[in-house]
Task: inverse folding
């Protein structure tokens, strides 16, 4: 597999010319679009041309406040039904390149693979968000933490933990308005995109952060979505970081709680005990996620992908060296520019990716039928999805389904696209 290496570039061109190449590679304003077009031209034979009655193109929809949302749109001549695809954090529309064709061909659907604001080819700028950087101090005995890998590889459980009254009150201050402001930024941008394109209703397929935002979109705009597919959505489980915990309404003294194994409980700590202090500190400092990518330049292509190659190649559908390299360069170029979204996630999730307003606390307001999909090796807590599906079906029988993609991880739509595509297509019929 071929990756750009700064060291080898130096050997060939010398330090002065290598630095110039590095700068041009990072600062090229058209590199993201070029990488985007190359990926989709490789994936879709009808990209920017008509082929067997179907055509794909990249479009940009203007929004208010000088913003825009970019999308890859695939349309048959007689398409009437719409499917919107929302990617996760640090991703963009190109991450769906193994899935778009199957959805477009199923039922003559118009597929809209969107770049959320701050990602891909959409506007990188946005509002200045309010914040509360107080770190919730969760105290427990490190010597009594058990790794419950037989339940989930990311689950670490101490016997109990303590929250200090003063710290907890500081943590809770203004958090509701912060989370609502950030979530509404994305949710309202999606709604403005829908209205500007004259779409009455659509099916929504959303992954990770996109899944979290998709749930809140469905709640705020309940008639806009017909069917909802959530692929390993973030922020489902409850935890001590949930500002919706009823016990926090009247705080009088410190909290000491026995840890729970269930993501339905506010005493569920999940992966938090394993999060490194340094990472927690950077998270609460609001260190831009992609700053290292900008500093490393082309070397980041290898670093971005090296830890994921083994996961992506679980399926023979994603193992070609040229395809992997093209995708790696696409990921690099669409993440290297500074973005308002780099730190937005840090306002709605803790460093352990626990939501400050969990999806479980908003389920009663979720109306469309939903399919919850997790990967067999997912780092997200699939049990949280099982709880959500059980609760939804108790409120309205048959309103939710739960599925697991064999051999898949968090990005199961890339790890095993054939199985993922089949599940989604069958559900959206």
Result:
């Amino acid at each position: 597999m071929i990756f750009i290496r700064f060291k080898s570039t130096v050997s060939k061109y010398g330090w002065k010319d290598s630095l110039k190449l590095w700068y041009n590679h990072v600062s090229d304003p058209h590199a993201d679009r070029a990488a985007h077009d190359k990926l989709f031209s490789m994936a879709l034979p009808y990209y920017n041309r008509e082929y067997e009655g179907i055509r794909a193109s990249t479009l940009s929809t203007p929004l208010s406040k000088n913003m825009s949302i970019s999308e890859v749109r695939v349309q048959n001549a007689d398409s009437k039904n719409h499917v919107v695809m929302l990617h996760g954090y640090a991703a963009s529309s190109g991450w769906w390149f193994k899935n778009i064709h199957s959805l477009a061909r199923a039922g003559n659907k118009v597929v809209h693979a969107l770049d959320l604001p701050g990602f891909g080819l959409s506007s990188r700028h946005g509002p200045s968000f309010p914040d509360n950087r107080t770190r919730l101090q969760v105290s427990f005995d490190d010597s009594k933490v058990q790794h419950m890998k037989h339940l989930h590889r990311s689950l670490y459980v101490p016997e109990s933990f303590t929250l200090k009254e003063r710290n907890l009150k500081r943590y809770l201050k203004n958090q509701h308005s912060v989370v609502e402001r950030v979530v509404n930024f994305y949710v309202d941008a999606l709604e403005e995109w829908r209205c500007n394109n004259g779409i009455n209703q659509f099916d929504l397929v959303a992954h990770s952060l996109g899944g979290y935002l998709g749930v809140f979109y469905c709640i705020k705009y309940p008639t806009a979505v017909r069917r909802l597919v959530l692929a390993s959505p973030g922020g489902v489980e409850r935890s001590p970081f949930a500002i919706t915990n009823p016990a926090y309404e009247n705080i009088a003294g410190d909290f000491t709680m026995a840890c729970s194994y269930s993501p339905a409980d506010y005493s569920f700590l999940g992966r938090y005990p394993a999060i490194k202090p340094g990472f927690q500190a950077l998270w609460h400092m609001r260190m831009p996620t992609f700053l290292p990518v900008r500093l490393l330049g082309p070397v980041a292509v290898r670093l971005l992908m090296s830890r994921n190659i083994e996961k992506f190649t679980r399926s023979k559908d994603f193992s070609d060296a040229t395809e992997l390299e093209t995708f790696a360069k696409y990921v690099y170029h669409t993440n290297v520019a500074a973005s308002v979204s780099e730190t937005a996630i840090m306002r709605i999730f803790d460093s352990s990716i626990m939501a400050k307003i969990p999806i479980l606390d908003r389920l009663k307001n979720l109306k469309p039928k939903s399919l919850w999909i997790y990967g067999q090796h997912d780092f997200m807590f699939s049990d949280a999805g099982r709880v959500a599906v059980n609760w939804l079906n108790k409120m309205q029988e048959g309103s939710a389904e739960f599925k697991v993609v064999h051999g898949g991880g968090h990005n199961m739509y890339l790890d095993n696209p054939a199985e993922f595509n089949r599940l989604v297509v069958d559900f959206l019929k």
